[in-house]
Amino acid sequence: MKIAVSGKGGVGKTTFASFLIKALCEEGKKVLAIDADPDANLAQALGIKADRRIVPIAEMKELIEERTETKIGSMGSFFKLNPKVDDLPDRLSIRVNGIKLMVLGGVKKGGGGCICPESTLLKNLVRHIVLARNEVIVLDMEAGLEHLGRGTAMAVDRLIVVVEPGRRSIETAYHIQKLADDINLKKLSLVGNKIRSDKDREFLLQEMSEFHFLGFIPFAPDIIEADLEGLPPFVKDLAGLKAVKNMIRELADH
Known about the structure:
Elements: E1 2-7, H1 13-26, E2 31-36, H2 42-45, H3 61-68, H4 88-92, E3 94-96, E4 99-103, H5 117-132, E5 136-141, H6 150-153, E6 158-163, H7 167-182, E7 188-195, H8 198-207, E8 213-218, H9 222-228, H10 233-236, H11 238-253
Parallel strand pairs: 1-5, 1-6, 2-4, 2-5, 6-7, 7-8
Antiparallel strand pairs: 3-4
Helix pairs in contact: 1-11, 3-5
């Protein structure tokens, strides 16, 4: 099972990804978690202490130069478009509570879709992870789906977009749907988060009636307490974790 998670910043995308990873792990699955969001908060959401510095792969200059056979920052240089990456998931992932985690980081130059050594290595790595790895893969993506190429996206079993009751969240979801269509990623579902009442739930169902909803997660102040205490959200919000476990069954049926 290969699942990508996306959504507008602040809707609880990474919190949902951590719930999903934890739920799959409790079902006995071998999970490789990929933090593909440049903001890189998945490690903390899985219980890794904030003071533990994890170097994103995008910042590993020597590794990128070695694999792409170029010098980063040199003008007009050629670099390898198919660098070796198959050893990196086992070599660079860290283990936390039975879960393997890789932090990709972002390419902070050249705009979206830049063709540069860093971007090339990351895209090849994601392609290998999705196409060749025999594990459950959960990718915590930015809203732009930057790391997914067309061929890679077609092998993703489901793109889950997290939304909250609000116009901006809905607009972002439609934008992500268009980006997904552009790379032929058709298997898209929504998760409603921060649901305070039936009114919130009905609002999302009415405004996004053409989408498939996997389920809804109730608003939980306990998540804020977990963050303040440096704990994973699923330690405090057991109701949210239970809701996501039900979504896994819905996902399998769908």
